[in-house]
Write a structure and sequence with these properties.
Elements: H1 3-26, H2 31-46, E1 49-59, E2 64-74, E3 79-86, E4 94-98, E5 101-106, E6 111-114, H3 131-135, H4 139-142, E7 144-151, E8 155-162, E9 172-178, E10 183-189, E11 195-207, E12 210-220, E13 231-241, H5 252-255
Antiparallel strand pairs: 1-2, 1-13, 2-3, 3-4, 4-5, 5-6, 7-8, 8-9, 9-10, 10-11, 11-12, 12-13
Pfam family, one: LolA_like
Keywords: Lipoprotein, Signal
Organism: Mariprofundus erugo
């Protein structure tokens, strides 16, 4: 065999091996497929519109705190409204997200407050979720590029990297999504690649005419990437999807209206 023929043979083998490896790892998924899967999860959990009731439980080694809330979500127009139902001291505290703007109303002070950008990473209602989580709910699809990096017998692993100049705080998000499109976990990394927190989804139930994970657990991690021993658990008590939502729900005037 001539040297030229030998080199050509090696190149062909390497190309074939490369294609086989890509097919095995990615299942012939393109970046467009990865984005579609991330979008599918958002559509599953939120649809175009939804109304829901949640119980949120903040758990630490020293204490636990629980609150209940109603939510109205208009994903199409990037609007969200939350009303706290309990405990009594927080009842009728409300939150309005409209685009990139976030307001809260404190009934004890009888005033509404616009949350400034400097407070977006502050904990929301003392939980392990942040104000930014409310404002950037849609950005997980539109502000990141999505790449399938692994696939096993249970799930796809998708890596989401911020687009250039995207107004996001995370350097990377890694999603685990089951082969049938059910979210399993989201891992959040800062711009230096440090693993900051993990969001787990489980307890799949039939709710609102579809199967969804009814428990979402946010776990902050320490500098070594280990669990800190605290977490926030969100339980979906009830949900209705694709409901008609009045524009008045997403008005600042609604911030001051008491629950009935």
């Amino acid at each position: 065999m001539s040297m030229r023929l030998f080199i050509a043979h090696v190149v062909i083998v390497l190309v074939l091996v490369g294609h086989a490896g890509a097919a095995c790892a990615g299942g012939q998924f393109s970046d467009a497929d990865a984005r579609a899967l991330v979008e599918k999860v958002q559509q599953l959990l939120r649809s175009d519109t939804s109304m829901a009731r949640y119980t949120m439980r903040i758990e630490t080694p020293e204490w636990q705190r629980e609150m209940r809330m109603d939510t109205w979500d208009d994903r199409v127009h990037k609007r969200f409204f939350i009303r706290i139902l309990s405990p009594a001291k927080d009842r009728d505290t409300t939150w309005l997200k409209d685009g990139a703007n976030l307001w809260m109303y404190l009934p004890r002070l009888e005033r509404d407050i616009r949350i400034p950008p400097s407070m977006m990473l502050s904990n929301w209602m003392g939980s392990d979720f942040t104000n930014d989580d409310l404002v950037k709910m849609e950005s997980v699809v539109d502000d990141y590029s999505h790449h399938l990096i692994a696939r096993d017998e249970r799930a796809y692993t998708i890596e989401s990297i911020p687009l250039p100049d995207a107004p996001v705080v995370w350097g990377k998000i890694v999603h685990r999504i089951s082969l049938d499109g059910m979210p399993l976990s989201d891992d959040y990394f800062d711009e230096h690649g440090v693993h900051i927190r993990r969001l787990l989804f489980d307890q799949v139930r039939e709710m609102g005419g579809r199967k969804i994970p009814s428990r979402w657990t946010m776990q902050p991690l320490d500098e070594a990437g280990e669990l800190q021993g605290k977490q926030t658990v969100m339980i979906v008590e009830s949900v209705s999807f694709d409901v008609r939502l009045d524009d008045a729900v997403f008005s600042r005037a609604n911030l001051r209206r008491s629950a009935r």
